[in-house]
Specification:
Tyrosyl-Transfer RNA Synthetase, 15 helices, 323 residues, globular, three-stranded parallel sheet, 2 domains
């Protein structure tokens, strides 16, 4: 049975392998499976960290270029800017009025940011899960494609929906996270979860020199060149596996176990594989940069999304007494 699918990506820079493996790859595949897909550029979310107008403007456009280059078809999906649907912010406020404070304090992203102390601890970062809930519940989504690290946000959206429904009557559908089992959490070059916030990413569309620098910066064990290299918990292998056949992966593992291969050659093999895998997308993106109809695509998507948002908000107004 076809499902309504909702997901978005925050425009805070060029996409990295974590974005692709955790969400974008699923987006592209799902558009051809007969589902109703709504994908948005989460520019409201970006405001928690991006405070320069020119940066946000470039990042927003960049996400559109990235998605289209990687194969998203605007004829098959509803693709739009979050900020083109102001009902998102309106619904966030309404949902915040029934959201327990403690629920947000338990959010992994908030606790992680507090522990690391690497981000400006603004209110937007704290209430981020409520806006994410509004994004999801607005469109009565069945599935939300996410990485394992984002699963809790969908669970919070369900909790908020249940609280709202219990308070005001049946209003929102309870969404389910759709997690690609093969990619739970993508590991960055330093061994932590791959994230722009940790500056440990491997990009897709940066120039070849930058991409090489990122790959060569992958953290590895201290092992003599002639010795075998461990295959367990190896960042290079975990990434190589995602872009290679099972035969190619086994050949790489055999090189690890034989000794005399070295991490330098392993990194070069990964770099070559990434450049080959994304070659067509990189070429398409360069051509799309010259296109003048990107905003037309986004405006068309926003019109379709707005109709759905208005249907939900009419029900919210009625059930809360605002209408």
């Amino acid at each position: 049975m076809p499902k309504r699918i909702l997901s978005g990506i925050k425009p805070t820079g060029r996409p990295h392998l974590g974005n692709y493996l955790g969400a974008i790859r699923q987006h592209i595949a799902l558009q051809d499976e007969g589902h109703e897909c709504l994908y948005f550029v989460a520019d409201y979310h970006a405001l928690t960290t991006v405070h320069k107008a020119e940066d946000l403007k470039n990042y927003r456009r960049g996400v559109v270029l990235d998605y289209l280059a990687l194969g998203l078809d605007p004829e098959k999906v509803t693709f739009f800017y979050q900020s083109d649907i102001p009902e998102h912010a309106e619904l966030e406020w309404i949902l915040s009025c029934v959201t327990p404070h403690g629920l947000l304090e338990r959010a992994h992203a908030w606790k992680d940011a507090l522990a690391k102390g690497t981000r400006e601890m603004n209110v937007g970062l704290f209430t981020y899960p409520v806006l994410m809930a509004a994004d999801i519940l607005m469109y009565q989504a069945d599935w939300v494609p996410v990485g394992q690290d984002q699963k809790q946000h969908v669970e919070i959206a369900r909790d908020i929906a249940e609280k709202f429904n219990g308070t005001f009557g049946e209003t929102f559908k309870l969404p389910e996270p759709k997690i690609e089992k093969e990619v739970a959490t993508v590991i960055g070059v330093d061994g932590q979860k791959m994230s722009k916030g940790y500056d440990n990413t491997i990009s897709i569309f940066e120039d070849e020199a930058t991409l090489k620098k990122q790959v060569m910066g992958i953290k590895t064990a201290s092992i003599a060149l002639e010795d075998p290299m461990p295959t367990e918990n190896d960042i290079i292998l975990s990434l190589y596996e995602q872009f290679s056949s099972s035969k190619e992966l086994e050949e790489m593992k055999a090189n690890y176990k034989a000794g005399g291969f070295g991490y330098g050659r392993a990194k070069q093999a990964l770099l070559t594989r990434l450049l080959d895998f994304f070659a067509e997308a990189r070429t398409r993106r360069a051509k799309l940069q010259k296109s003048k109809n990107l905003e037309d695509i986004m405006e068309s998507g926003a019109k379709k999304a707005r109709r759905l948002a208005e249907q939900t908000m009419d029900l919210v107004y009625k059930n809360t007494g605002l209408l």
